[in-house]
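Box 3.1. Reading complex inputs
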Amino acid sequence: MRKLLLAAAIAAFAATSAYAQQTIRMGTEGAYEPYNFINDKGEIDGFERELGDKLCEMTGYKCEWVKNDWDSIIPNLMSGNYDTIMAGMSITDERKEKIDFTQNYFPPAASAYVALKGATNDVTNGNVAVQVNTIQAGYIAQSKATIVEYAIADETVAAVRNGEADAVFADKDYLAKIVEESNGELIFVGEDIQLGGGIGMGVRKSDAAMRDKFDTAIAQLKKDGTLNTMIEKWFKIKNAF
Amino acid sequence: MCADPKVLEGLSWFACYLTTPKHFQFYLSFLTVLALIFITAPFTLLLGFAGALATRSRFLPLRWIGTAYTSMVRGVPDIVFFLFVPIALDQVLEYARHRVLCPEVTDPVYRGNDFVVCAIAKLPLNSAPQWTHEIYGFALAIVAFSVVFGAFAANTIHGALSAVPREQLETARAFGLNERQTFRRIHLPQMWVYALPGLSNVWMILIKATPLLFLLGITDIVYWARELGGTKTSFFEYPHSDWRLWYFLVLLVFYLGLTSVSEKVFAALRRRVSRGQAVIGEIAEALR
């Protein structure tokens, strides 16, 4: 009798909690290691996958990951194809006009120029490759350099390798590993430039309640050091927050 | 054998590389492209017939609809339709569901730039597994492709219907066949010989247009070729340099193979459709 009651109670609890668990679709690009990429098993992986799963666990949402090209990532959020953006997207005033952000979960980081071996610092005034709709694109557009835009970050580096551009301007954390493994073929040039307000999770302006939940969770992760551990694992950066 | 890629060399590295789950998604995406082509084709023909018959109709509003469809869709750049139709159709369906399923929600659906409907009106639902979302996106793509290529097919079929010699139709009437019988037994079968060149052209253009799936965010062969081909650092289990050339070469071979098979099929169709027609060699005069 008691076992039956216990089973019924558990079933009721499970039913109500399953009923109450909302599914949130997390949008990401999947082409920006180590923030987000597609691993060899064909799954979305990276720092933001791990962080996103942890945030969903903490806020009680059921999360479903969705891949979307960088170009249309904000318009598709506003159309409702998914509910959040975790794609290495920096918090900027221009983006805040269209969507809302949580607090940043990655501190404002440097953007750097990379060019072929033997290049001097004045390649930063030549043809500079950037990814479309990024803070780096905005910066180069109003600098003296000639902007050359590409759809994905990998193409910007390929452009430098095959001579289409003199230099590439992107997040230093993205370029670090590429330069390291290029056998001296690619080098950092010019000076690092701080851009953006750090990386945050983008949500629709009409989803303030969900944003606040994620915000609280991020603050908690910062406080108990879990976020720092994750950042150190993926970026080898200690004590980010 | 493929448990630790770091110790593999040469052929065994390639064998393990080409059989990762990620690569299998690439191989499966070829089926996506083939599915798009073979599912779109009948719908294209259907819309083509509908458009052609509407344009030839004696009922004026129907004629306006037919003419508007063929000229508008042919006049506007394809990309506009491919980008507009899926988004517009999706929003129309979700809006209709919103009005039906949650009439008590009075907040505006268009808030600034956001399109927000109540949770149960979303199509597919947020809680639905990702594959339903992908099938839905694919279905919207099929609609967009069918609408665009249906207009071209409608133009071809309209021309073919007009090209059938009047004498054939008059003879049919003289034999006592009424209009429907004439159309079904004489006009339509004879139309194919005139329609075939145009329709085979539409088919080839449809094949070439399939990479536009990539623009709609569907992970098709172009997406995977670009994703797999890009330089990979040791972050990934199988690092490699820029191999996009090789992956796109595979795509080239695939499309060439598809078009050459289509050519053979159309050659057989030409022979078949030339039966009973005035022929030069094996092929109808009309096809010369």
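In summary: Residues 133 and 147 of chain B are 21 Å apart (CA to CA).
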